[in-house]
């Protein structure tokens, strides 16, 4: 029973870690990152398209993002989409490409970003704990139905807790790295 359950627990918790890492890429650190454009779309001839699909994105400097649209008529629409996304940057263009400068974060803004990171981390921990709770309920139900013994139930619940602890530790490590990245000037 535990082997099938272990695969399910690990897969669910791994998805939570992947989601956490994806969410963290959207939190600004003061350095240019094309991941801040994830989720920002632009109207491209009637279709909503990600910015990365309507232009080439590059990072020529640590605090500068450049977008070279494949179609220059898209420049105003791309700028408008970036401004509407409210990611804390103001794009500018020279008629050929869009420059998105990333201002250095103030100490206050850094602390605010760290709070946001901790909030995202807590949500990830809750998701991991929910997986643990759901799996423990399945084990208790199996014990109640006499499918497994009480000893086996306790053993499986302990193993579920061990896996949960492992993933909580991974979340803490990911968050610690992100906090260091934000607080580094």
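Q: What amino acid sequence fits the structure above?
A:
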């Amino acid at each position: 029973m535990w082997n099938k359950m272990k695969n399910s627990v690990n897969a669910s918790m791994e998805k939570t870690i992947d989601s956490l890492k994806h969410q963290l890429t959207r939190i600004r650190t003061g350095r240019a990152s094309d991941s801040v454009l994830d989720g920002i779309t632009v109207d491209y001839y009637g279709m909503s398209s990600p910015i990365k699909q309507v232009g080439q994105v590059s990072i020529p400097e640590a605090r500068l993002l450049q977008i070279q649209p494949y179609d220059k008529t898209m420049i105003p629409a791309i700028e408008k989409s970036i401004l509407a996304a409210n990611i804390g940057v103001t794009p500018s263009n020279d008629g050929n490409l869009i420059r998105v400068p990333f201002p250095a974060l103030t100490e206050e803004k850094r602390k605010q970003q760290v709070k946001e990171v901790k909030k995202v981390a807590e949500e990830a921990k809750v998701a991991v704990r929910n997986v643990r709770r759901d799996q423990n309920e399945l084990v208790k139900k199996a014990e109640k139905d006499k499918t497994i013994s009480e000893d086996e139930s306790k053993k499986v619940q302990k193993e579920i807790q061990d896996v949960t602890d492992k993933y909580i530790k991974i979340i803490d490590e990911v968050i610690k790295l992100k906090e260091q990245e934000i607080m580094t000037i």
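Q: And what stands out in the fold?
A: The longest helix spans residues 107-144.
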